[in-house]
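Lab notebook page, bench 4
Experiment: in silico fold of construct C2
Operator: M.H.
Input chain length: 233 residues
Purpose: comparison with the prior construct
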Amino acid sequence: MPTIKYYVRERLLPAGELTSPNQAEYGPGHERRLRLIRVLLEVGGLSLATIGEVLKATDDPAQPVLKVLGAAAKGVTPLEEGESGPELERAREDVAELLRRRDWQVSEGTTAAESLAGVISALRRVGHGGLVDLIEEYADAAESVARVDIGYVQRRVAREDLVESVVVGTVLGEAMFGALRRLAHEDVSFRLYEGLGGAEGEGPRGGWPAGGGAPDGAPDGVEGAGGAGTPGA
């Protein structure tokens, strides 16, 4: 873990008030900034260079809050590696059409759109394009989750708190939603298939039931694909 002096030297943290030639005093503002740096570094996985850009935007009162939040989200949004070629280009067109159809206002060139295109392309390559046909249902769910996310962020006041909320929400919020989704899979599968002749006490736990067919026309044997938890912001 880099030291406070290192952060000061890299201009990520303002200098403290000197109390002697070799000692400085740091106040609550430094503590808040240090916590934000560590969240960006440890939770968000941002590089120190990217952290510097985010903090610069955070400190500039002329920067709109949405631009500050966008800078933070851009650094932590995972980008799927997709093979270039016609399949990926087709997926990019599908994503662009989805955004137009739903009238989602997103930044041009957002990495989230490229990530979604990579997922769509990968699903088709492995023979599970049926999940792509359910993209509107996934988008409905993602929009509902996004409203909850932004509602949480809006309760934060300080700009640094806003940035921290976006970073933590993007990384840990997606993990939380993924876990909830798996739990919901287990519950829905059990309710749909518990009466199909299984032994007493044995339910088709653990997601979509193996060999029983996926609900709602989704392809058999796929669990957790599709990225329903990907937020727009």
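Observations: DSSP finds eight helices and two strands in the chain. Confidence is low (pLDDT under 50) at residues 199-206, 208-233.
Next step: discuss at group meeting.
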